[in-house]
Amino acid sequence: MRKKIGEKSVKMMKMMTVFALALAFVFSGGFIGPVKASAAPDNEKKLPEKYIQGYKIDKDGKKTPVYNTDNAPKGKVAPKADEPTSPYAANYPKLSEDPYAPALESGTTKTDPPGKIGDIVYFKLNGVQAHFNGSEEFTDAGVYLEKKSDGTIEKGLYEVKTGATNTAPLEKLNEERAQNGEAWMVEKYGPSMAWSKAFDGTSKLKRESKFKLLGTSTVANSAEWWSGLDIEHGVSETESYSLAWTIGFKLSIEAGGGFVPGKTTTEFSTQLTNTFGQETTISDKVTYKDQTKVPKADNPAYQYDVYRGALYQLTNTYTLEPGTGLQELINAEEFPGDFGFKQGLANPSFQYNSKELYYPVTPGSHLGPGGQ
Q1: What ranges do the domains of the chain cover?
Q2: Is residue 282 exposed (0-12), middle (13-18) or buried (19+ Cβ within 10 Å)?
Q3: Which of 117, 137, 355, 356 has fewest C-beta within 10 Å?
């Protein structure tokens, strides 16, 4: 037997159904309202054929726009002659078309063809101290192998704080090796005397370049964007030693100290330019406040009330990748009293902050000179 539902009950059920549908519509986004800034982009609208992807600041401090067409394939819109490109253009971080979406933490990594390691390999030697620069004071030391211009290999100690070297504690061992040869030394003392393995040509110096995010935010279309952050680039005295241990470079030691501002970084630049076959500039440590401003949005067809700006800095990571011989030497059994290589490389990797900066903006918000 069916139960009869009264007229009032029917009306109540209808009202509840309408209310439930209204709630569903609200939570599905139907009642978001006419706030343009938070609306999803109109799928029918397309980005301009050419727009500014961002602005770069090169090592000379020059600001230039980077257009989305800088790396366009042949047949596509190409940049004009007065719109310079960058060797990192393909790897510049791109912001989302939605200014409310977060910025990427870093740009795509660009890896250069690996270069040859330097003529010196530095190793850790924790717990060992020695005299350096004629001082009677004992200071922390590491051990290194250096391949001389005549092909001979020398073993010595280096001061961790200054890069100063001292071969006196190993003088007899170096002389014995020079007189008898490596094979004789290996037979007498063991595999840790096969120093030539460190320079067998299989070890490489790797360089990866990418942009890391320093800061990001949104501003009204009518406003300029700027970060106001403190920027650091270059190497300090302490960092210069870490870089030297990684790339296998022997610092020029002057009376009274190791690091010589200007001279040291120039030597680094020359060394790395020769290693990778392209100009590389290493500078002394500099800290300054970022004052670079991004112009206000100039695309009248841009569909948001705000745009996102961000600041990225180019970083170069240098990594010494041991080859077959060097790894065998590190793993070799040592003889008693030997300043061996078991503790591994002194500084396998070093990150260098470049002077080059990049300021991306929301795609389509900036058209650049001449507008549309």
Answers
A1: 52-113+204-320+351-360, 118-202+323-347
A2: buried
A3: 137
